[in-house]
Amino acid sequence: MKCYVCSSETRPFFTENFEGLYRLKFVEYWKCLNCGFVLSKTHRDMSQGQWEELNEAVHSSFQGTDSAKDDPKWLSRLTKQANVIGRLTELRVIPVDAPWVDYACGDGQLACMLKDKFAIEVDKYDRYMSSCDSGYITYSQMIAKEYGNLINTSAMEHFLSIDPVKEMMNILSDSGVFMVHTLVRENIPCDLQWFYLLPVHVALHTNRSMAILFERYGFEASVYHPESTMWFWFRNSTDFVEKVIRVQNELIPGQFFFRNGFMDYWKQ
Ligand SMILES: [Zn+2]
User: Fold this and answer.
1) Fewer CB within 10 A of the end CB, N or C, for the chain?
2) pTM, full prediction
3) 10-62+73-260, which class in CATH?
C-alpha cells in the first residue's frame, strides 16, 4: 500500500483490537515512511457497503443530538468554529461575498450556526446525507460551482483515499480560503490507548502530510486558531491577512498563529 498523500512506501505501524465494537476486530494501521501519515489498511480494504454500514452505525448514534459519546466537546467546538469564521469574515480576511460550501457537513449544524449568527449562507454537502434533507446540495450541483470559501471540519480523518481532497480543491477558486479542522500531530503515536483511535478515524495526519497538501494545492499562508482548533489556508492576500492577524493578536495575545507556509502548531 502506497501513502495516498505523498505516494511513498508504507509499513505496518500497529494493530488495534476493537473487540467487536461496530463489528470491528483487529484494525491494522500503516505508516508512510516519508510523511508519517497513517492509514487504516483494514478500513481501506473494506467494500463500499461495509464502510457505509460502519459509518451509518457510528454516526446515527449521535447526529441530530447535541452530544457525542466519543467526542463530548463536539457542539461547543462547533460554536467556537462558527464564531471564529464569523469574526474573520467581519475582518474581511475571509471574503464573505464569495460562495460558501461546507464539504462533508454531516448534519449541517455549523452551516446553520453561520446562517443564524452571521447571516452567512453556506451550501451543505455530504455524500452520505444529501438525500435526507432538502437543505443539502447534490454532488452534481456542487461540482458545477466554484467556491471562494470551503469549510471541512472533522472529515479528513475519515477519508480512505485522496479523492475527497482532490474534489475539494477542484471546487475551490484560485483565491479561495480553505477552513479545516482535523487532528494533526508532529508524529502519530504508536499507542493503542490513544483517544483518537475511534472506529471511523482512518486517516491520521502529521504536520508533514498536511504541509504536502498545502503546497501541492497552491496555498501560501495559514492561520491557526487554537481555541476552535481551526486552520485557515490562504492562496493570496497573504500580506493583508498577516497584518489583520497581527492587529488581532495585539488586542488578545496568542489567539491566532500566522505563518507564510503551513502553520505546524501542534508539535507533540
Ligand atoms: Zn506519505
Assistant:
1) C
2) 0.94
3) alpha beta
